[in-house]
Amino acid sequence: MNNMVFRFWLKEKVMSNRRKLRAPLPASFLNHPPGVICTYWNGEPCDAQKVNLVVSDPGIHPEYWARLFVGQVRPAVRVTYGGNTFYLDDLDGSGWRKVTVGFGSPQYGSRSLYGKEV
Q1: Cα separation of 57 and 90, whole Å?
Q2: Whole-model pTM?
Q3: Where are the strands (E) in 15-72, listed by range?
Q4: I want to staple 111 with a disulfide (CB 3.0 to 4.6 A). Which of 17, 23, 89, 101 is the partner?
């Protein structure tokens, strides 16, 4: 394609400015040995482990989504971040996906669970 035709073609292209370029990932995301699974919460490294949890209802949420599963054992992900430990439901793999592939970002959905590990 000669230069003049290319310039004309470029002017006719409609470009969207709605998508912004994402900043490159920090070096801490990329500097881990191959085969080692790193887990993150809000983009920062955290400790996360797959566990089984007996679901309980703490009574603090009037419309707790897992109330139907109280007393049942469900797969979960225990996340320890900033001195706090909490559990994410992992029945469909979404909890583990959030802390690995999603870097703990709010863009990856998750569901909190309350209960005791078995």
Answers
A1: 17
A2: 0.71
A3: 40-41, 44-45, 47-55
A4: 89
Tell me, yes or no, whether 32 lies in a domain: no
Query: How far is the CA of 113 from the CAs of 6, 13, 85, 98, 102, in angstroms?
Result: 56, 49, 11, 15, 19
Determine, yes or no, domain membership for 69: yes
Domain count, the chain: 1
CA 48/CA 99 separation, integer angstroms:
7
pLDDT digits (tens, 9 = 90+) for 92-116: 999 999 999 898 998 899 999 999 9
C-beta of residue 109 within 8 angstroms of C-beta of residue 89: no
Structure tokens at 87: 């559990």
Give me the domain span that covers residue 102: 39-118
Q: Is residue 92 part of a domain?
A: yes
